[in-house]
Every structure is written in structure tokens, then in C-alpha cells.
Automatic annotation (TrEMBL):
The gene is yidC. It is a multi-pass membrane protein. It comes from Noviluteimonas lactosilytica. Residues 86-363 form the Membrane insertase YidC N-terminal domain. It comes from the Bacteria. This is Membrane protein insertase YidC.
Length: 570
């Protein structure tokens, strides 16, 4: 198979795929699910310690719909919680919480894009109804009163603005709830220095006269913003929705628009985690690795706006009079920093860095990111790290590329004889094909040798694309010269122009055998077509393509020179 035909095929497939993905994004936006009305339900009767009650669609075992439904009681609870709100500031986060709800979370090390007019830092949680996004946690019980996330957890101290002290490893913020049945629940939030995993520990003390059975629930609730579109915008292709991980069935995910159609999930798990993902950032509840929970998905409606809920119900506790029990979880609020996520030692949590929904591609992208990070630890610059990664990948694939270029060199040498065959047989395609195959056999040329390396390289290149698109480490990272943000487009379009020039030069070295004039004209337009599609791509991606193309051009030129098959005007 002629390499130029293969390149033409892949180029048109790439353009068609980008256009299809853009059309699919528009169709998804046009068919968002209608708001789902819900009614609160409760359960009665006893339950065994640690058991997980059945989960109705709207609520789980008495868990209030989230956010609170309109009404005087809900408004009063919200106002009371506002009076009990505490703002915590560490070196990484500024968080506002009231005991049952983490209402606002600002990532202090991740500024918004000031060049586009966005000031301040990235916010994950936001109590503003227009951007509603909260982490909520409470309790349900069949044997007595229990605090849901709307109940009055009262701060134990009088301080409402808490800051991580200089030299301290963490800051702790305790809240307490006291029930009329003699049960108290002390909830302590622990914010570590330099981290994004908040520990949430609940201690249940039964000072009453009867056993108390309860189940903790933890949920993430969001009114997701409209998803950005555009085939040159990596955020448009990033996954937005709920993900979860169970030791038995591993990683899975669901887009917001599929919440209703695909059911409530109702998946039991020991350990695992639940999360809401977006481009570069995510939030997650991580129960204890021995805790039994039930993971559910649902939607609620607040003033005509649909909110999406991913919830973990459990574990359950059975506390006798005079006894106490304890449960804890971690709440991740932050970026998809692979090193920080790995430090949590949570099975499967690195899959939140959603390189691909397919585990094989995600694993391959993870390996590539490991190499990229290792190079960065030496050179200290993500742009040069990308160049170093491409060099290593090219070196690894050199034996395959050498076979490809040798095949091209032999094909180029045969061009004069191929032209003679065309002139001899004219429009008799059958005889021309037989004569061509006989020539290949005589000269020991296998056209497929030029194609197979491309198929072998494609998974690596696709994994590289998704890895570079999803890596928050490249967000706002400078390279050199005029590139001060690898996650934004080249401001002067120099890299896309270089990419066009490299593709054109590569095309000049590629044999054009077997192509009619129309195909040749299409081939000549491809550098311009691909160059235009890359004008608004993030500079880090274009840098990768430019480096990869330049190395490929150099390899091709050297192999053709060695085989004495350079074109006369190359």
C-alpha cells in the first residue's frame, strides 16, 4: 500500500472525526434531559448494623433531596447553616462549610485565565444557584433522630475564619450535633498542608437509653454549566459527569445527560469512591477501604433547574447506650494532579484522570505521562519535556519507522518503471494491477510494509493526544520564546505554520505512485487542511505534532539518502 494513500486516508478520517465530534456535542446540548421532579421518601423499621437500605429513585432511606426543596423549613435550615458557616484557608484551598455542606471551594494555586478576562481562582464548589455545586454529608436513622446535611451542625469554637498556622501540618475544624434522644455526632474536618484531600471524621456517642442505628451518606450535587463546544477546544472532549470505582467492577462513568435514561445505578461496594469530573479538576468522596456503601445516581429539581447527584450511602453503625462508633472518609477537592492522587493510595483513583474510558488506552497514556513527568523532573519545563518525550517515542519506534522508510525508498526507485507500466497498459486496470504485483514480487517490495508501522503507531499517538489534552500539569505552563501557556493556542500561529511547512516537505519526499491527478491535488491540499484545523489547538499539542513531524521528516530524508532514493528536487 502506498504510504501517501495511507496518510491521506488517516488525514481525512481525522478531519471527519473532529467534525463528527463537534456535531455530536451540539446534538447533546440540544437534547439535555428535562428537569426531573422528586418527592422525599423515608423508610421505617429496623436494619442490621452495616446493612445498606434499598435506594428509592428520588431519595435514599430518608436522605433529603439535594439541594433542599423550597419551603419555610428548608429556608430556615439554610439560614441557620449560613450563621454556622466557617471559612478555612490553607496554602491550597479556601473553603466555606457549615458542618453538613461544603458550600464553596477555591483552588488558590489555580488562577483563571486572566487573558480572557477571567479574574480570581478556579472554584469547584459554589453555593450560587446559577453554578450550584456542593459536597454534602449527613445521617439517616430508623431508630431515632439523626442529622441530615441541612441540620444544625454547630461549630465547637467561636472562630468563623480559620487559617492554617505557619509550620502546622494541618488545621482541624470540629462541628457537633446533639439530638433529643441523647445521641451526639461530632464531625471533624481536617485540612492538610499542601493537599486537596480533606478528611471528614464522624464520632457517634450514644448517651441515650436505647440502641441507635444510623447510616452516613455522602453526596456530590451539581447544576453543571453548559459544556463548551468546538473541535479545537480540549475541554469540549473532556468527560463531564459522574464516575465511580468499585473493587469488583472497577471504573465506570456516566455523562450528565445519561443520568435519567440509564437508571439509578444502585451498586454496592466495599471501599471504592464516587466523583464528579470536569476538565482538569474533580471532586470525590472516598469512603474507608473496609466500609460498605451503596452508590446511587439521581436527579432533583430546584426552581425548574435540574441538579445531578452521585451518592454513597453507608456504612451503617449500631451504637448501644453508653457506647460510641466512628466512621471517616476523604473529600477530594482539587486538580487532576497524578502525583497528588497517587499519594492517597486509593485503588483506581488515578482513573479520575480520565485519559480514556478504555482501560488499555488509559494505561498506555498513564505510562506516557510517567515518562513525561520523569523528563520534567530533570529539565523543569513542560514544553521541553514534550519534545523529550517525542524524541524517546521516536527512538523506541525507530526500527518500525526504518522498515517503513525503506519500503518508501524502494517504492520511489520503482516510480519510473511504474510509469512505464501505466503507459503500456493504459486504462486496462486489471493488467496494470497484475503487472504491478509482478514487479513488486520481482524486486522484493512489500507495499504493506509502509502501512503496518502506521497502524502500530496510531494507538501511541492517540494516547499522547489524550494525555496532553487532559494533563492539568500543562495548564498555563510556559514553554519558551513566545509560548507562555501550553494549554492555550499559539498567539502568533507560528507553530501551526511550521507544522504546515513540515507536512509539505514530508509530502515532497513521499512517492506519489498509483495516484491519479485528482488524488494528487487532494494530497497537496492536506497540509493546509490539517494546518487550519490546528490553528486554535493548544500550543502543547501543536508542539508535539511539530516535533514529531520534524523528526519524521529528518528520519525519512536520512533513509532516502542512504538508499539513494532522494527525489531530484527534494
Amino acid at each position: 500500500m502506498n504510504q501517501t494513500r495511507v496518510f491521506l486516508l488517516f488525514a481525512w478520517i481525522a478531519v471527519a472525526t473532529l467534525l463528527w465530534m463537534e456535531w455530536n456535542k451540539e446534538q447533546t446540548a440540544a437534547h439535555q434531559p428535562a428537569p426531573v421532579a422528586t418527592q422525599a421518601t423515608t423508610t421505617t423499621g429496623g436494619a442490621a448494623p452495616g446493612a445498606v437500605p434499598n435506594a428509592p429513585t428520588a431519595t435514599v432511606a430518608g436522605v433529603p433531596a439535594a439541594p433542599a426543596q423550597p419551603g419555610a423549613a428548608a429556608t430556615a435550615a439554610t439560614n441557620a447553616n449560613a450563621n454556622n458557616a466557617v471559612t478555612v484557608t490553607t496554602d491550597t484551598l479556601r473553603v466555606t462549610l457549615d458542618g453538613g455542606n461544603v458550600r464553596n471551594a477555591e483552588l488558590l494555586r489555580f488562577p483563571l485565565d486572566a487573558k480572557s478576562g477571567e479574574a480570581g481562582n478556579v472554584k469547584l464548589f459554589d453555593a450560587d444557584p446559577a453554578h450550584f455545586y456542593e459536597a454534602q454529608s449527613g445521617w439517616v436513622s430508623n431508630t431515632g433522630a439523626a442529622p441530615d446535611h441541612l441540620s444544625n451542625f454547630v461549630p465547637e469554637g467561636a472562630e468563623r475564619n480559620v487559617t492554617l498556622a505557619s509550620g502546622a501540618d494541618a488545621v482541624r475544624v470540629p462541628f457537633i450535633w446533639t439530638g433529643a434522644n441523647g445521641v451526639t455526632i461530632r464531625r471533624t474536618y481536617t485540612f492538610p498542608r499542601g493537599g486537596y484531600a480533606i478528611e471528614v471524621r464522624d464520632e457517634v456517642v450514644n448517651n441515650g437509653a436505647a440502641n441507635w442505628q444510623g447510616y452516613v451518606y455522602r453526596q456530590l450535587v451539581r447544576n453543571p454549566p453548559p459544556q463548551k463546544t468546538g473541535y479545537t477546544n480540549p475541554e469540549a472532549f473532556a468527560f463531564h459527569g459522574a464516575t465511580w470505582y468499585t473493587p469488583d467492577e472497577k471504573y465506570d462513568r456516566r455523562k450528565y445527560e445519561d443520568f435519567v435514561d440509564d437508571g439509578t445505578l444502585d451498586k454496592e461496594s466495599t471501599g471504592g469512591w464516587i466523583a464528579l469530573l470536569q476538565h482538569y479538576f474533580f471532586s470525590a468522596w472516598i469512603p474507608g477501604d473496609k466500609d460498605k456503601s451503596k452508590f446511587t445516581l439521581t436527579t432533583t429539581q430546584q426552581n425548574g433547574v435540574t441538579h445531578y447527584v452521585v451518592r454513597a450511602l453507608g456504612p451503617g453503625v449500631n451504637v448501644a447506650p453508653g457506647q460510641k462508633a466512628e466512621t471517616h472518609a476523604r473529600l477530594w477537592v482539587g486538580p487532576k494532579l497524578v502525583s497528588a492522587i497517587e499519594a492517597q493510595n486509593v485503588p483506581g483513583l488515578t482513573r479520575a484522570v480520565d485519559f480514556s474510558r478504555f482501560s488499555i488506552m488509559a494505561t498506555l497514556a498513564g505510562w506516557l505521562f510517567f515518562v513525561l513527568s520523569a523528563i520534567h523532573s530533570v529539565v523543569g519545563n513542560w514544553g521541553w519535556s514534550i519534545i523529550g518525550l517525542v524524541i524517546l517515542v521516536r527512538a523506541l519506534l525507530y526500527p518500525i519507522a526504518a522498515k517503513q522508510f525503506q519500503s518508501m525508498a524502494k517504492m520511489r526507485k520503482l516510480q519510473p518503471r511504474m510509469q512505464q507500466l501505466k503507459e503500456r497498459y493504459g486504462d486496462d486496470r486489471q493488467k496494470l494491477q497484475l503487472a504491478t504485483m509482478e514487479l513488486y514480487k520481482k524486486e522484493k517490495v512489500n507495499p504493506a510494509t509502509g502501512c503496518l508501522p502506521l497502524f502500530i503507531q496510531m494507538p501511541i499517538f492517540l494516547a499522547l493526544y489524550w494525555m496532553l489534552s487532559e494533563s492539568v500539569e500543562l495548564r498555563h505552563a510556559p514553554w519558551a520564546f513566545w509560548i507562555d501557556n501550553l494549554s492555550a493556542r499559539d498567539p502568533y500561529f507560528i507553530l501551526p505554520i511550521l507544522n504546515v511547512a513540515i507536512m509539505w516537505a514530508t509530502q515532497r519526499l513521499s512517492p506519489m505512485t498509483g495516484m491519479d491527478p485528482t488524488q494528487q491535488k487532494m494530497m497537496q491540499l492536506m497540509p493546509v487542511v490539517i494546518g487550519v484545523t490546528m490553528i486554535f489547538f493548544p500550543a502543547g499539542l501543536v508542539l508535539y505534532w511539530v516535533t514529531n513531524g520534524a523528526l519524521g521528516l529528518l528520519q525519512q530524508w536520512w533513509m532516502l539518502k542512504r538508499e539513494n532514493a532522494l527525489p531530484a528536487k527534494a
